[in-house]
């Protein structure tokens, strides 16, 4: 599961070695520590360098808290870090294309210009 917070990004998957834990992975140093308040480890060979094996109930608690902290009416505008904002905009753009293909058909945006005038 990908989690996009306005100050952190995670991939959360099952822990292969412990069904009571989840493996929380991050692309940026400090994101896990900031949000989960646990020590992250670094694996320079891994797809996601920063990671922590966290008890499932703690991940659940933290995610509930993050939902409760939502105080914005526009997620993209709430992201203060420019690099993270730009990354999220790329995700938004790609998912917008998925939506437009659903609405207008698979060939509708092959030329990168949407039927309603948006440019990718």
Description:
With 120 residues, the protein is α+β, with helices and mostly antiparallel strands. It folds into 2 domains: 1-71, no CATH class; 74-105. It has 4 helices and 5 strands. The chain is globular, with a radius of gyration of 17 Å.
Percentage of residues assigned to helices: 25-40%
Q: Name the strands of the widest sheet in spatial order.
A: 1-2-3-5-4
Radius of gyration: 17 Å
How would you characterize the largest beta sheet? 5 strands, antiparallel
Q: Which stretches of 5+ consecutive residues score pLDDT under 50?
A: 113-118
Structure summary, number of beta strands = 5
**Overall pLDDT metric:** 90
> How many individual domains?
2
| Estimated structural class | alpha+beta
Helical segment count: 4
Head-to-tail CA distance between termini? 25 Å
Series of H and E elements = EEEHEEHHH
Shape: globular
Estimate the strand proportion.
15-25%
Q: Summary?
A:
With 120 residues, this protein is α+β, with helices and mostly antiparallel strands.
């Amino acid at each position: 599961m990908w989690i996009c917070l306005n100050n952190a990004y995670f991939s959360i998957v099952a822990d292969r070695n412990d069904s009571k834990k989840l493996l929380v992975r991050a692309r940026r140093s400090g994101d896990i520590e900031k949000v989960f308040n646990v020590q992250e480890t670094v694996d320079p060979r891994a797809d996601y360098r920063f990671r922590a094996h966290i008890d499932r109930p703690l991940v659940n608690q933290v995610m509930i808290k993050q939902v409760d902290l939502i105080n914005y009416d526009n997620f993209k505008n709430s992201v203060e870090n420019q690099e993270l904002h730009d990354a999220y905009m790329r995700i938004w753009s790609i998912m917008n294309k998925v939506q437009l293909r659903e609405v207008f058909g698979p060939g509708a945006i092959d030329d990168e210009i949407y039927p309603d005038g948006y440019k990718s």
